[in-house]
Amino acid sequence: MNYILPLEEKQLSMHCSANMGDKGDTAIFFGLSGTGKTTLSADPKRVLIGDDEHGWSNNGIYNFEGGCYAKAINLDPEKEPQIWNAIKFGAIVENTIFHPGTSIINYKDNSLTENTRTAYPISHIPNSIDPPLGTLPQTVFFLTADAFGVLPPISKLNPSQAMYHFISGYTAKVAGTEMGIKEPQVTFSACFGEAFLPLNPTVYAALLGKLMKQHQVDVWLINTGWTGGSYGTGKRIPLAYTRAMVNAALEGKMNNVSFEKHPIFKIQIPSYCPGVPSELLNPKNTWENPGNYDQTAAQLARAFQENFAKYTEEAPPEIMDGGPSLDF
Q1: Of all helices (H) and strands (E), which one includes residue 260?
Q2: pLDDT value of position 179
Q3: Which domains does the chain have, with CATH numbers?
Q4: Which of 93, 186, 286, 298 lies 20 to 30 A from 147 at CA?
Q5: Digit-coded pLDDT (tens) for 141-177
Q6: Three-class secondary structure of residue 225 per DSSP
Q7: Half-sphere exposure of 290 (CA within 13 A, CB side)
Q8: pLDDT of 202-237, one tens digit each?
Q9: Could you name the domain of life of the organism this protein comes from (predicted)?
Q10: DSSP per-residue codes, 92-125
């Protein structure tokens, strides 16, 4: 499908999750493992279209995979009730440990690995939609777990930036998610799913840009990672704040707020988001030493530029203009 749809059908195939509100407003969530793609799309106030694989045509979006795959470490019935309740007969758990002498899973046990998982049919989500079809998306979220504390918890992207960040597919790996990782590592996976894509990433990015402009789609970059410093120094952004930011974007509650341009990444940072402390919105303000923030941000920008060097021959100027700049 990732080969046929873009070439023969001129439709965008996507490694993403998708849900839809009661007003028929569809949202798409792109993100690599550990960024919150499954968690944020499993919203009890919205119907779930699908968890992982979708197509986007001029008529709407559709799921072509039919299941869900979520991280299970520290799973909490209050924070993630839909995933918690989906783990029943017919679901699979991986790398998890039982409470001694019982068949009850201890989701807090990371003695084997932090990378515990669950897989279940989409029908285990009570508000999943059948058939799995959605309207034309109005909102797209790019999710990243930035372990360096550089990217804002929420920022708005213009079409050039959206295509650039889509091709980049940035997140960071931290200790516990994979063997041998002790310090945060920059990770790029084109279109947030490079392993699944047989075509050049610029093909998918060009289709995304075309659809964005054609249907006037808002694109937001959401950092579900760290703030106030890098991993080990700063703190993970609370899930409750991330949900509040996603809901505010979906409900248009930031349409009339002022924005500040990030000096390096040029993305737009809102001055206000309901349900979120304003001092959290600009990441530099959360660091004890602003100079250390600037240095870390410059290092991350260079990593983006070095990764993107392999696409410069295929990427048009419009996409190249969406990248970070160190002239600040």
Answers
A1: strand 259-261
A2: 56
A3: 21-30+136-320 (3.90.228.20), 68-124 (2.170.8.10)
A4: 93
A5: 999 999 999 999 999 999 999 999 999 999 998 755 5
A6: coil
A7: 3
A8: 999 999 999 999 999 999 999 999 999 999 999 999
A9: Bacteria
A10: EEES-EEPTTSS-EETT--SS-S--EEEEEGGGS
Name the token pair of 143.
């999710």
Looking at the chain, the number of H-run helices and the number of E-run strands are: 8, 20
DSSP state for residue 285 in the 8-state scheme: G
Q: Which amino acid makes up residue 91? A: A
* Amino acid at position 265, single letter: F
One DSSP character per residue, 234-252 reads SEEPPHHHHHHHHHHHHTT
Of 184, 203, 213, which Cα lies nearest the Cα of 316?
203
CA-only gyration radius of the chain, Å: 19
- Residues 73-78 have a mean pLDDT of 93
Q: Which residues contact 154 (CB under 8 A, 6 or more apart)?
A: 220, 221, 222, 223, 245, 249, 269, 270, 273, 281
Backbone angles phi, psi at 133, to 5 degrees: -120, 145
Taking CA atoms, 245 is separated from 13, 148, 226, in Å, by 26, 20, 15
Question: In degrees to the nearest 10, what's the CA dihedral of 291, 297, 299, 301?
Answer: -150
Question: In the prediction, which pLDDT does 314 show?
Answer: 87
